[in-house]
Design brief:
206 residues; alpha/beta; globular
């Protein structure tokens, strides 16, 4: 039984308390989501690395769902013009990188090892450098023994051609193009050598 002498909460007070609890709960959920989002955490880090490293997640695209072949003409650091039309009939790897990117340095030996293994099978590798001057890029290639060429993509022409596949600032990202020049697979972030090898074996066999 309610004691008539005890002050009872009004409807307005009850609604206010409920709203406060709901707001607190929502804030906790949002805080939890932000804390669990590694890309958001990197963006907030303020460490001046100027890139967002992916988690190495792999996306494969079934042949029937692939978009149109990529289309661009780019310039390698040695001045050679290369058109994506030249990719027809070959599996092609595009690795987006720049010299100050720590994951790019870690994965460079694996990329070169796979390049050496798959070049005899007709697979061609290209780096796509988004930021560096020629000297910086060449110093990186010399240090890590990279034997395949890179596009000087400071003007963003190659990046624009794969818009939607390579998130801005997400470096490294690696694309595997099928023999028609379509994106067959994507590795977002530092790659695993065995994973990329499996993707290349599949692409070559198609």
């Amino acid at each position: 039984m309610t004691n008539p002498l005890t002050p009872q909460p009004t409807r307005r007070r009850l609604l206010s308390a409920a709203s406060a609890l709901a707001a607190a709960g929502l804030s906790a959920v949002l805080a939890g989501c932000a804390a669990d989002d590694p890309l958001a955490a990197q963006a907030r880090a303020g460490d001046n690395k100027n890139y967002v490293a992916g988690d190495g997640s792999v996306t494969e695209y079934a042949a029937g769902t692939r978009k149109a072949p990529v289309a661009f003409t780019g310039t390698l650091y040695d001045g050679t013009k290369v058109s994506s039309a030249d990719f027809a009939g070959k599996v092609t790897v595009l690795n987006f990188w720049f010299a100050a990117c720590a994951p790019c340095r870690i994965e460079a030996p694996d990329l070169e090892a796979l390049h050496a293994e798959f070049a005899p099978k007709g697979v061609q590798f290209y780096g796509v450098n988004l930021r560096d001057e020629k000297g910086t890029a060449e110093a990186f290639e010399s240090t890590f023994g990279v034997g395949y060429p890179s596009f000087n993509d400071k003007d963003g022409q190659v990046l624009l051609a794969v818009s939607g596949m390579v998130p801005p600032g997400a470096v490294p990202t690696t694309l595997v193009l099928d023999k028609e020049g379509r994106v067959a697979a994507r590795v977002l972030g530092q790659l695993d050598r065995s994973t990329l090898k499996a993707l290349l074996v599949t692409a070559v066999a198609e």
